[in-house]
Amino acid sequence: MGQERRRFFRIDDTIGVAYRQLTEEELESSGFEGIKPVDALSLIASFDNKLANLTGRLRGPEPLLAEIFETLNLKLNAVINQLELDSHLVKRVAHKVHEVNLSACGMAFFIDEPIDLGCTISLEMSLKPSNSTILCFATIVASDYIEEDGHYYVRMDFANMSEHDQEVLIQHIVRRQGHQLRESRIEPLAEGE
Question: Fewer Cβ atoms within 10 Å of its own Cβ: the N or the C terminal residue of the chain?
């Protein structure tokens, strides 16, 4: 893992973070390696695609039935969109903004409460400015108490992150790194004027 970690760029960033320590029962009942965070929107999109395909096949022999299914699907989508809007508002409150050191394989940041070394957390990150949400699990690899300010500096490795989410995260890191490099080049020019 040490060699793999060195392949990824690390950046300092400000993101929204929500996390929850998984209980022993959750880990034992599902076997951590086999569980993945649920991306509800991707699941709904796959159901929409399947329903559109099946409804299209009904359009010729049963046009009324196809129209009924399409109308029900539109109604369900309206309900889901409203729930998603409500959920998005709740998430914006639930996500605490953190200054993080971030890479494609893990991150580190300060928290107020102690967290056990080696424990597994359910993690949700909100990347700015794209508002992309990354869902995964993480294992705490270090937790150091900082006496001066009474906080804990935790470092974690991501686990069970989908390929899509990892790609979104890598693209975010590359964009942020490019932005930070441009900013660092502009600052000396502004000071020289």
Answer: C
Torsions phi, psi for 111 (to 5 deg):
-130, 165
Going by C-alpha positions, the residue among 14, 7, 5 that lies closest to residue 179 is 14
What angle do helix axes 40-59 and 63-94 make, rounded to 10 degrees?
170
Which residues touch 159 (CB under 8 Å, ≥6 apart)?
32, 120, 136, 137, 138, 139
Quickly count: other Cβ atoms within 10 Å of residue 127's Cβ: 21
pLDDT tens-place string over residues 100-111: 999 999 999 999
Amino acid at 112: D
**H/E run at residue 50:** helix 40-59
Q: Do residues 40 and 87 make contact, with C-beta atoms less than 8 angstroms apart?
A: no
Give residue-wise pLDDT tens across range 121-172.
989 898 988 888 888 999 999 999 999 999 999 999 999 888 889 999 999 9
Given a contact cutoff of 8 angstroms between Cβ atoms, the answer to whether 152 and 114 are in contact is: yes
